Structures are given as C-alpha cells and as structure tokens.
Amino acid sequence: MSAYLGGCLCGQIRFRIAAEPAAVRLCWCRDCQRLAANGTANALFPTAAIEITGTPAAHVRAADSGNQVTRRFCPACGSQLFSDSSGRPGSTVVRLGVLDEPSALRPTAQIWTASAPTWACLDPALEAHPKAAPAPAAPATPAQPPAARA
C-alpha cells in the first residue's frame, strides 16, 4: 500500500493518505466545472485513512444527485482539497491536483459526461457515465470527516 501526500497552494493545509483509492475519475458535473472552470480529476479514499494538518474551511450544498456535499478548501489560498457526500458516508473525494505526485493516480472513468461542455476533451479510452457512476465498494470502516490538527 502506498501513502499519498499533498497539500494546498500556500502550504497551510497538508495531508497524508494511508490507503489506496476506491475509484479515480474525471468529473464533469456542473459543480466541479464551477470549482475548476473545467472538469476535475478526483480519487475516492476511505475517510479514516486521511490525516490532515491544518484546518480547512467548508461549504455545504446540495448536489445535482440530491446528496448534501461538503467541499473543504484552504481558507488562505482557496485550493479545493476534499469533498464529502451524504451519499458516500465513510468516503472522501480528494482532488488529484493537490497531491504532491498527481501522476501517481490515473483516472479510469469519467462521470457526468452529459454535463460536459461541447469543447471538453473526453477521453474515449475511459469508461464514461452520463451521470454518476455506480458506487464503488464501501470502505471497511465508515467514519466522519477527519478532524483537523492545528
């Protein structure tokens, strides 16, 4: 098993993940497009495997799926870091771009492709889902979002 390290642009938030992801995907939902001005590359990890140093800010909103999504980001530089959904208790989405080695994980699917703009570069080699993909296997032990350490 690998450990994945990462953090925000300014370094105020750092994290370590001691698990392999359940899924690695490109997301074209409208929320991700608004966050990134493009699609986002994300990995789904067991929440309990993520250790965070620093205190992310949070924004809660209902997603197109109907689930409540809590997006966590650095309050200083605004880097988007994590998302937790009421539809996936015990799992946390981590943005690949905030990993120290973003190439360590490669997307295997693209989701919400029906929402992608006409200019989007959709990879025909990846599994594609017009909306959400089927849920990956649940992590071994569901947990609350990890507590931040100051």
Automatic annotation (TrEMBL):
Name of this protein: GFA family protein
Zinc is among the record's keywords: yes
Family note: Belongs to the Gfa family.
PANTHER family: CENP-V_GFA DOMAIN-CONTAINING PROTEIN-RELATED, GFA DOMAIN-CONTAINING PROTEIN
Pro residues compositional bias, start-end: 136-150
One Pfam family hit: GFA
Keywords assigned by UniProt, alphabetized: Lyase, Metal-binding, Zinc
Residue ranges of domain CENP-V/GFA in the record: 4-120
Superkingdom of the organism of origin: Bacteria
Entries under InterPro entries matching the protein: CENP-V/GFA, Mss4-like_sf
Start and end residues of each stretch annotated as Disordered: 130-150
Naturally occurring in which organism (per UniProt): Pseudaquabacterium rugosum
